[in-house]
Amino acid sequence: MPSIFRGLPTLKALSPQHNVKTFSTTATVHAHSSQITPRQLRSRFWIPQATIKQQNEGVPYGRQLLVRAGYFRQAYSGIFHMLPLGLRVQSKVEALVDKHMQSLGASKVSLSSISSQKLWDRTGRLNKGSEFFKFKDRRHADWLLAPTHEEEITALVQDLIHAPGHLPIRLYQVSRKYRDERRPRGGLLRGREFIMKDLYTFDSTEADAHATYADVRKAYSNLFDELKLPYIEARADSGNMGGDLSHEFHFPSNLGEDDIITCTNCDYAKNEEFVPSFKTVQQAVEADAQVTGDTTSHGPSNLVSQSFLSKDRKCFIKAYASTEAASSNTASINPFAVKECFDDQVEVDTGVEDPIALFNARIESGENQAQLKVYYVFDQLINNDVVQRQIHEDKKWLHENKLRAFAVKIADSSASQSILLKKRDGDPCPQCEIQKGGGKLKVTKAIEVGHTFHLGDRYSSKLDLLVPTAGQKNVDKKGAYVSMGCHGIGVSRLIAAVASALSDDRGLIWPRVVAPFEVLVVVNTKQKDMAETVEVGNQIYDDLAGHPGNPADVLIDDRGDVDYGWKLKDADLIGYPVVVVVGKRWMKRKFVEIQCRHLNVKENEVSLADAPGRVRQLLDRI
Ligand code: ATP
Ligand code: MG
């Protein structure tokens, strides 16, 4: 007998009742330890039944498959219940996160989900966001469900550090976040309640904080490498987080809401949202000024224009870009570049569908008419005559409505293409252009799964978190502000993103590290000599689960009342990385079958002695 069988239960351990519904003994003595661990049995693990009977509407993708296979259910729009399978995946993601956060020397905390609106008022974020779930308590105090925890953790640390030696600090948590998203979508991809890992770092100096930032990026790369899936790390915009340095980790996917621009030749990788800052010149213009000079060059055929509205609805923005140097005739304007033309006074809303209709309605309402403004934004390639001409076209409208008009011209760019245009496949890479490398850009739709931000003193300055000097307390307000970073990973989003990255028309496919179970042993229980197949299944289970250096997380499909073909379909839908079948081939020729859809492997004749080793080889590759 091969050594893998030493110390394992014998056939005698089976009792007759196992032939009825389920078959196996539930406990195994691991060959290499004296610990008795119950075997994980499909019959004892609740997965909602009959889900595979539902037929596809359209092409299945991760979300539908996750629901159909029984991982989660939607309770309300953007709000979900995790079922046992989904929770196992979530726990695996959390374990992966824990491993890499520990490699950074970060300690785990769990902050309250309830946060005071007063605190958020101090950082100025309360009025900026529209995604808060706000509520009052019985004393009419104002609270919110935390969408993120910069405010709370800064206040906590402010309260607890009293000496210079207390820094650096690295704290993280894996917790529920609440955002009343305008458009919840894609199931777990964009929820209103979701699980996030958030890490916060606190350093004494800016230089230390930058070193920490580099460590976090490295830890993120190590974490995402373990999923063995393609991902892109791109320079990102820091949005309303403040700070000046930020990167995002993305999975390429058509379901993604981000456009990531990479180069075929160099390491250029940027989110379309990230637009390096540039200078603009702003000038008030008279609506009825006379048009002078040549108005024929850069005529409308060389221009694209798009309108926007500010978030406060007081400013209408018309942006013009020259398409002369564009490689595509379907060029369009990048709203994030238009955003970059303004400071905090004008916040461009990139999500308005019909800005002119909304603005005209605002004019007609007569409300605060004197505050309404119109901005004409022109890229660096458009000459002044054209600027005048475009504004002149609106003369009557501006005049009649007493609108104040401003021309905003991009001043300093060495780029040969319009700075306002969206990048397209095949455009020259700006980084290569400088280095004469000649690379071309590629635009990829992608799902953002992680984000790193260097915050600097964005929060510490507002909440008085200072590096304590010896003998002084923070309240003395002396010394430098603590330099912070915050770093998120969307745990629930990651589950949905992995599911859609790897699934096929038969079901889900999980990388080993986040699979609900790594191996399923399917035993044919509908044959007369089933006691033997059951025993072989148990032996394979015990060898895999009890391996000292490379233990696997195994489940046995022990259901006696379920058809064998059904079990295999069920296995495909749920997406166990490796499936071992002890069935007809075992009875005829003493071989087991091993399947791994991820690697396109289907081996029909594997001996019992070879099977566990072969399974481990496959697991190590996925
Ligand atoms: P997005 O641009 O997609 O709204 P964000 O920039 O608002 O993301 P962060 O505040 O940086 O996101 O949050 C950290 C991580 O949390 C994100 O990288 C993402 O993976 C995840 N995340 C953010 N919002 C949601 C959501 N509504 N549902 C699920 N995951 C989310
Ligand atoms: Mg968001």
Describe this structure as you would to a colleague.
The protein is an alpha+beta fold and about 625 residues long. It is built from 15 helices and 27 strands. Strands 5, 9, 10, 11, 12, 13, 14, 21 and 22 form a 9-stranded mixed β-sheet that branches. Strand 3 and strand 4 form a beta hairpin. Helix 1 packs across helix 11. The protein starts with about 25 loop residues before the first strand and ends with a helix. The N terminus is likely disordered. The protein binds adenosine-5'-triphosphate and magnesium ion. Adenosine-5'-triphosphate (ATP) binds next to strand 10, strand 21, strand 22 and helix 11. The site of adenosine-5'-triphosphate has 15 residues, from strand 10, strand 21, strand 22 and helix 11.
Task: Please describe the topology of this protein.
Layout: E1 27-29, E2 36-38, H1 62-68, E3 72-76, E4 79-82, H2 84-103, E5 107-108, E6 114-116, H3 117-122, E7 133-136, E8 142-145, H4 150-160, E9 169-178, E10 193-203, H5 206-225, E11 232-235, E12 245-252, E13 258-263, E14 269-271, E15 280-285, E16 303-310, E17 315-322, H6 335-339, E18 348-349, H7 355-365, E19 373-378, H8 384-393, H9 395-400, E20 404-410, H10 430-435, E21 441-456, E22 483-490, H11 491-502, E23 519-523, H12 530-545, E24 554-557, H13 564-574, E25 578-582, H14 584-589, E26 592-596, E27 601-606, H15 611-621
Parallel strand pairs: 5-9, 17-19, 19-20, 23-24, 23-25
Antiparallel strand pairs: 1-2, 3-4, 6-8, 7-8, 9-10, 10-22, 11-12, 12-21, 13-14, 13-21, 15-20, 16-17, 16-18, 21-22, 25-26, 26-27
Helix pairs in contact: 1-11, 2-5, 2-11, 12-15
